[in-house]
Amino acid sequence: MTASALSRQVQAVSILVCAHDEEANLRALIPLLLAQDHPLFEVIIVEDRCNDGTYDYLLQLTRDDSRVRMVRVVVKPEHVNGKKFAITLGIKAAKYEWVLLTDADCRPGPQWAKHMAHAMADSTQIVLGYSPYQTVPGLLNSFIRYETTITGIQMMGMAHLGWPYMGVGRNLAYTKKLFLESKGFNDYLAVTGGDDDLFVNKHARQVAVATVLAPEASMPSIPKKTWGAFFTQKTRHLSVGKYYRWSDKTILGIFQLTGLISLAGGIYLLFTPLWVYGAGVLSARWLFMALTLVSFEKRTGDAAPWWQLPVLDFIYGFYYLVTGLRAMATHKVRWKN
């Protein structure tokens, strides 16, 4: 994206963050939001029944900077998921038509809002952004970044093909008009999660959707530090997949099934007299995946650990079987509260 293109007038945005006991993260995030190189924006923080010092911190911020606004959730309706209720209140309070969502544990660069807002054309109502995880040492972090990259390739690739099926709430924008006229999350209020991907899955086929892959528009997030926390997070994310459109579930199912068959088939052949064919299948698979990861890295600036592919690919196959089955069988998952 050229400098001259970015210099054109861009949309004003209401940046929305929902927070439950996130004082430490908000102290790191909000200065980065206020430092956005964007001509017109506000920052709305929904203080969702916090037990830490979030309220006092935000109250002082609203006095110091008129761009910061606080919306409080004191009591949540019993039949409504906490985060969906918080987002709904935040969107209703938004001053501007475009709402740009992220999470408290994200860390944007100064050009994030500008690049996301540049995709907000008059006919567009949803903008999908990419959100990688920060790089730290260790196999868990490598796998988290690998899994996130695979999901990002699927999400952005299908959207480019005219088949958008999900979004990521850490880096997602849509219009206030779309949200209010479609009655927001009304069809899945009690479902934990889905405030991002189910909303996009339900409405993206009826409206114009834009994608932003520029490195400056990426929204880095803090990764989980333990395998248990990561699996809990992914179970929550994957559990909403059962509510996707049947066509989307079919396509994603075929993608995962063929991937598992080629991986399992290649590994099986390695331990038979036909081992050379197994080596060929796996080599071809990993070469194709490495080239895809490198290509995606050039577009997004997110360096996926492609050199660890054999190990990560094996873990991914096991992870998807276990977590996918667990998510399908799970009826109750939680946000934070």
Number of H/I helices: 12
CATH topological fold name of the largest domain: Spore Coat Polysaccharide Biosynthesis Protein SpsA, Chain A
Provide the gyration radius in Å. Answer: 21 Å
In the predicted model, the low-confidence regions spanning at least 5 consecutive residues are 1-7
Structural class: alpha/beta
The CATH class assignment of the largest domain is: Alpha Beta
Global morphology? globular
- Terminal CA distance: 40 Å
- Within the largest sheet, what's the order of strands? 3-2-1-4-6-5-7
Number of strands: 7
Largest sheet: 7 strands, mixed
Mean pLDDT: 90
What is the count of distinct domains?
2
Question: What does the secondary structure layout of this molecule look like, with pairings?
Answer:
Layout: H1 3-6, E1 13-19, H2 23-34, E2 41-48, H3 54-64, E3 68-73, H4 82-93, E4 98-103, H5 112-118, E5 124-129, H6 139-160, E6 172-175, H7 176-181, H8 197-203, E7 208-212, H9 227-239, H10 246-270, H11 275-300, H12 309-329
Care to describe what's here?
The protein has 337 residues and is an alpha/beta fold. It has two domains: 3-224, Alpha-Beta Complex (Spore Coat Polysaccharide Biosynthesis Protein SpsA, Chain A), CATH 3.90.550; 247-329, no CATH class. Helices cover 49% and strands 12% of the residues. The chain has helices at 3-6, 23-34, 54-64, 82-93, 112-118, 139-160, 176-181, 197-203, 227-239, 246-270, 275-300, 309-329; strands spanning 13-19, 41-48, 68-73, 98-103, 124-129, 172-175, 208-212. The chain has a seven-stranded mixed sheet with strand order 3-2-1-4-6-5-7, with helices on both faces. Helix 10 packs across helix 11 (275-300). The longest helix is centred in the C-terminal third of the chain and has 26 residues, at 275-300. The radius of gyration is 21 Å and the shape is globular.
